[in-house]
Amino acid sequence: MAQRILRVDMDDLKVKEEKVPDKYKNLGGRALTSQIVADEVPPRAHPLGPKNKLVFAPGIVTGTGSPNSGRLSAGGKSPLTGGIKESNAGTPFARGIARKGIKAIIVEGKAEKDKYYLLKLDESGGELVDAREWLGKGLYQAFQELHEEFGENIEIAGAGIAAEMGASNAGIAYTDPEGMSSRYSGRGGLGAVMASRGLKFVMAEEPEDNNVEIKDEETFKEGKKKLAKALAEHDVTKKDGALYTYGTSVLVNIINESGGLPQRNFSTGSDDMSAEVSGEKKAEEIKKRGGVESHKCSPSCIIKCSEIWTKEDGEDPVGVLEYESVWALGPNCGIYDLDTIGELNRACNDLGLDTIEMGNTIAVAMEGGLLDFGDGERALELMDEIRDKTSLGRILANGTEFTGKAFGVDRIPTVKGQAMPAYDPRPIKGIGVTYATTPMGADHTAGYAIAPEIMGVGGKADPFDTKKGELSKGLQQATAAIDSSGYCLFIAFATMDIDEGMEGVVDTVNGVLGTDFSVEDVMKFGQQVLETEREFNKKAGFSKEDDRLPEFMKEEKLPPHDVVFDVPDEEIDSVWTD
Amino acid sequence: MSKKVKIKLFAQISELAGRKELELEGEDVKDLLESLVEEKKALGEVIFKDEEHTELREDIIILKAGRNINYLKGLETEVKEGDKISVFPVVGGG
To answer: Which helix (H) or strand (E) holds A90?
Structure first.
């Protein structure tokens, strides 16, 4: 079966199949969603209006069975940033649509007011079915009911209660291998783009035949071997390595010790209590309670950085507690208890909210006096305000800047309207340059300078050194390419250090596409994606003045190192001008 | 004069050592790591590349007062009374 694009017209409620145009043939994942958005969405379109579009695209190797190839991109114009957004997720849903031979799903138009639909993908395209019975329901329950009605093997993408309100922090939830709503295209409010089209769910049953075409099997097999070897070898990605044993929360202690783990709305970079919510503590607890250590988010993963967190009695699984979620809902809110964090995470998953943005929102609300830092109980009550769609709930569901403004806060840790992740840029300058310059808004995965700056992986860089333009640029280029490939970004820990690993990635891509890319082409490919995104943002009204960190981070010294963010503007701008 | 310094161990390093924290004495980071290996023999080959303890392994991160010793004076980095040394294996995440 040839690959095809599905165009879902929410005005006519029709699903049309289209041939893949030549210009999209060698694109996938982020490269494809960003290109389609750039080609079809007017940059000044209202993000919730009829001219915005939501694009799903699996990566180039997604569904092939290559190790760690379970990723999917969702893209559109972001209601949170007002710029272009790609939000990458690891989920069996990715393979579900890739194996149907679907290159991309473009959701456009807008259904009638108060009408919501479920898109059931089938062999000939798909059909739109009334989904109003699931309005106002939590996603854990909705996913369960969808499985009961449509079968245990279906994979789901869903917009939750927050999305129904058009909230700027609404993410898109996906099934994990257990069928729970714990995987996310979290950042940037794409859930609101989905729901504002009138689309609640997309469902795919994985087909019996794998329709992912591999043009050159030999080259693909070679590449798969090389990549698997590199992943098994590297300290970060290997079995019994740090990610396997402790999950991403293994970062809590090292970032805390480095003085860069933001506490209580970015007011200090370290706190002794942080150890209470570390990866080591989490692993200890999971051992005691049951739950699952070393879990994978999608079938082909061999790194297994995920886990399943439960309540103390081993019941009521939440899903993974990522480093970012633990930090945002934890230390950044002055909360140092994994069970409270687990419940806040559960609420985010259930309501369809990005945890990083939600944690920052609560922290800013704490600073604004709505509740005290550390008050986990009240924070949970605020999540119920969102569930009940109250006015306060609507404020909070719209993210950090919106909430900060409502409560008169002047210390807002955002760039381009998106809240910062779990690394303070003042003592870790390179990640700050990434936050400032990526087209995505404050985003750590976009150019993960933490690897060279803190871990010594993919190079070695002093986190206090301000010359970071080149470092951030290189990482952003490589990342844009990996985000398009269908591979999990964590392969980069291995491929940045082990040349054969990167060769393996390129071989598998060439194997699938029948192309002849070299390792050198990877950076060029990434640069192309970034230029497409920057061009969109420019037309949407962004300029270099938006590539800046918040004022307070340039003035206020962060303890314990007592540093400000002092990377000169010229150095920041060199990312895009050099 | 030897300075009393707190050594904090993390992830697999603390599992191997059977503890998370200890107090040791030394002039510089090399002294302290050698004392650490004296106390916890199992850490010897996890921290140092060689038996003479002249080189650190590539997959070890050592912080002194929150700063990576690679950007201070490496193993020769001096310590003050009450300083904190943090020892990590190479970790990753997002």
So the answer is: strand A84-90
Who's near A356: CB < 8 A, 6+ residues apart? A186, A187, A324, A325, A328, A419, A421, A422
Q: Are A462 and B71 inside 8 Å of each other by CB?
A: yes
CATH of the domain at B12: 3.10.20.30
Identify whether B32 is part of a domain. yes
Q: Answer yes or no: pTM beyond 0.80.
A: yes
For residue B89, give every residue at least 6 positions away whose Cβ sits within 8 Å of its Cβ, in sequence order, or none: A235, A242, B10, B11, B12, B13, B46, B59, B60, B61
Answer whether residue A101 is part of any domain: yes
Q: Report the C-alpha gap between A551 and A565 in whole angstroms.
A: 9
Tokens at A411, concatenated: 């210390």
The DSSP bridge pattern shows strands B84-89 and B3-9 to be: parallel
Is some CB atom of chain A closer than 8 A to the CB atom of B89? yes
Q: Does A248 touch chain B (CB under 8 A)?
A: yes
* Range(s) of the domain holding residue A59: 4-205
Least trusted range by pLDDT, from A93-97, A211-215, A241-245, B8-12: A241-245
Please work out, in degrees rounded to the nearest 5, the angle formed at the alpha carbon of residue A508 by the alpha carbons of A507 and A511: 85
| A376 residue type, one letter | G
Query: Tell me, what's the pLDDT at B61?
Result: 96
- Least CA distance to B14: which residue of chain A? A280
Q: What is the DSSP letter of A448?
A: -
* Confidence check: pLDDT of A391 > 90: yes
Q: How far is B74 from chain A (nearest CA, A)?
A: 13
DSSP tag of A453:
I
Nearest-angstrom CA–CA distance, A222 and A289? 42
Alpha-carbon span A95 to A64, nearest angstrom: 8
Nearest to A196 by CA among A138, A112, A129: A112
Asked if the Cβ–Cβ distance from A246 to B71 is below 8 Å, we say: no
Task: Tell me which residue of A325, A322, A319, A298 sits closest to A488, measured CA to CA.
Answer: A298
How many domains are contained in chain B?
1
Structure tokens at B24: 């040791």
Question: pLDDT of B36-65, one tens digit each?
Answer: 999 999 999 999 999 888 899 989 999 999
Strand-pairing partners, residue A71, are A90
Query: What per-residue confidence (pLDDT) applies to A1?
Result: 64
ipTM for the whole complex: 0.95
Q: Do the Cβ atoms of A456 and B12 come within 8 Å?
A: no
- Triad A171, A67, A286: Cα angle to 5°: 60
**pLDDT tens digits for range A250-291:** 999 999 999 999 999 999 999 999 999 999 999 999 999 987
Which residue(s) pair with A77 in the sheet? A84
**C-alpha–C-alpha distance, residues A292 and A317, integer Å:** 9
Identify whether A153 is part of a domain: yes
Q: Do A561 and B66 touch (CB under 8 A)?
A: yes
- Structural domain for B78, as ranges: 3-89
- Total domain count for chain A? 1
Q: DSSP 3-state assignment of B77? A: coil
Report d(CA A304, CA A224) in Å as an integer.
18
Quote the tokens at residue A403: 């909430």
Averaged pLDDT, A370-391: 98
Q: Mean of the pLDDT values across residues B67-74? A: 97
Residue of B nearest to A326 (CA): B94
H-only helix segments in A301-397: 323-329, 338-351, 355-367, 376-387, 391-397
pLDDT of A319-334, one tens digit each? 999 999 999 999 999 9
| pLDDT for the residue A242 | 85
